[in-house]
């Protein structure tokens, strides 16, 4: 079964073709980051308009890469939510129009399920069950995953998401949006002994997170330096921030593994690309004897491959999920726990 995946929830347009027999056949992506950068964040209306421009060319590019015709597609999976309403509508209406034209069935995919299952696209995928840490731009959740559609929330952030904390702290240091990767790079030059920032909820005995206080600590530190803040001071603040957030993320993963008794940890979402996080988790894995799995770097942030894959996994379990009801709807707010079991 060949599934077309369409992702348009935020500022990436992603198309992909996944074959349940042969794996990922092709994928194409356009990131709007450069377009939104001058505004310091995603402008929803600009995002929608750009998805309209990009979707069809990327679709053709994906078909060409896979050396396939559109008639060979068996089903279309599109991101139904959560995300920006206008952006979601572009992908959904494209998927529905194509489905109707080709007489192919459709499936609306939950964006976070896409992220969550993305590590299974890697060359050495984890087996179920596992503990998953989803760390993206809009979410930070620890979950127990027993299979496709079997997700138990263990804990989540009470305020900012991890990616958001990275981006907001980066902005305080004058780095362009989204600054997650940039602040991480800067931190590598910083001295770890200068700033000891708080580790919010490190000892809270649950699996919840809170990052807004950490962001305030960064702001307070930045304000103490005379303007303009020097590159060395910036790097030291970045280092303090990264060390604090990685400490918390790592510690909570370890306690979630301990509490569930599981030996496999899976990281998903954009912050999963972070080098310091990977280093800390790999070290913990060696020390505590668990296995840790990551998505391929290119599939950490939004992409069509994870949507095609999540759609294919669901359809494999339950082909009846595919619908020829082309009256699409999107769900900008869609808690993962409201997602039906596969
Ligand atoms: P959601 O999936 O929750 O709706 P999103 O789709 O915007 O949010 P992703 O695409 O998964 O989130 O990830 C984007 C986030 O990942 C941004 O906040 C970005 O700064 C962060 N990020 C990407 N690379 C890195 C990195 N190397 N280090 C830290 N953060 C990073
Ligand atoms: Mg994005
Ligand atoms: Fe995402």
UniProtKB/TrEMBL annotation:
Keywords: Acyltransferase, Cytoplasm, Iron, Metal-binding, Transferase, tRNA processing. It comes from the Bacteria. Its EC number is 2.3.1.234. It catalyses: L-threonylcarbamoyladenylate + adenosine(37) in tRNA = N(6)-L-threonylcarbamoyladenosine(37) in tRNA + AMP + H(+). Signal peptide: none annotated. GO terms for biological process: tRNA threonylcarbamoyladenosine modification. Substrate binds at residues 134-138, 167, 180, 274. GO terms for molecular function: iron ion binding; tRNA N(6)-L-threonylcarbamoyladenine synthase activity. Its cofactor is Fe(2+). This is tRNA N6-adenosine threonylcarbamoyltransferase. Belongs to the KAE1 / TsaD family. GO terms for cellular component: cytoplasm. Required for the formation of a threonylcarbamoyl group on adenosine at position 37 (t(6)A37) in tRNAs that read codons beginning with adenine. Is involved in the transfer of the threonylcarbamoyl moiety of threonylcarbamoyl-AMP (TC-AMP) to the N6 group of A37, together with TsaE and TsaB. TsaD likely plays a direct catalytic role in this reaction. Residues 24-309 form the Gcp-like domain. Fe cation binds at residues 111, 115, 302. It comes from Undibacterium oligocarboniphilum. It is found in: Cytoplasm. PROSITE patterns: GLYCOPROTEASE. Binds 1 Fe(2+) ion per subunit. It holds the Pfam family TsaD.
């Amino acid at each position: 079964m060949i599934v077309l995946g369409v992702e348009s929830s935020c500022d990436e347009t992603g198309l992909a073709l996944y074959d349940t027999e042969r794996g990922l056949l092709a994928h194409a992506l356009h990131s709007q980051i450069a377009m939104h950068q001058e505004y310091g964040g995603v402008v929803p209306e600009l995002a929608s308009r750009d998805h309209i421009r990009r979707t069809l060319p990327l679709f053709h590019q994906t078909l060409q890469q896979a050396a396939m015709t559109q008639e060979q597609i068996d089903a279309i999976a599109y991101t139904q939510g959560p995300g920006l309403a206008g952006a979601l509508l572009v992908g959904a209406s494209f998927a529905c129009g194509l489905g109707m034209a080709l007489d192919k069935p459709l499936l609306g995919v939950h964006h976070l399920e896409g992220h969550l299952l993305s590590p299974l696209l890697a060359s050495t995928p984890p087996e179920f069950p596992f503990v998953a840490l989803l760390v993206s731009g809009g979410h930070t959740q620890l979950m127990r995953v027993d299979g496709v559609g079997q997700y138990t929330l263990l804990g989540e952030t009470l305020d900012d998401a991890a990616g958001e904390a990275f981006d907001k702290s980066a902005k305080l240091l004058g780095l362009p949006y989204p600054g997650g990767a940039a602040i991480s790079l800067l931190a590598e030059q910083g001295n770890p002994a200068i700033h000891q920032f708080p580790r919010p909820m490190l000892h809270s005995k649950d699996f919840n997170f809170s990052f807004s206080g950490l962001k305030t600590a960064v702001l307070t530190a930045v304000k103490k330096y005379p303007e303009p803040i020097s590159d060395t001071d910036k790097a030291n603040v970045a280092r303090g921030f990264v060390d604090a957030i990685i400490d918390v993320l790592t510690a909570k993963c370890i306690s979630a593994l301990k509490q569930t008794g599981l030996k496999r940890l899976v990281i998903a979402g954009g912050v999963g690309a972070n080098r310091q996080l990977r280093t800390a988790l790999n070290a913990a894995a060696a020390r505590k004897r668990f296995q840790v799995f990551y998505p391929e770097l290119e599939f950490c942030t939004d992409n069509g491959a994870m949507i095609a894959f999540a759609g294919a996994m669901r359809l494999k379990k339950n082909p009846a999920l595919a619908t020829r009801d082309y009256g699409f709807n999107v769900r900008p707010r869609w808690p993962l726990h409201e997602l039906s079991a596969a």
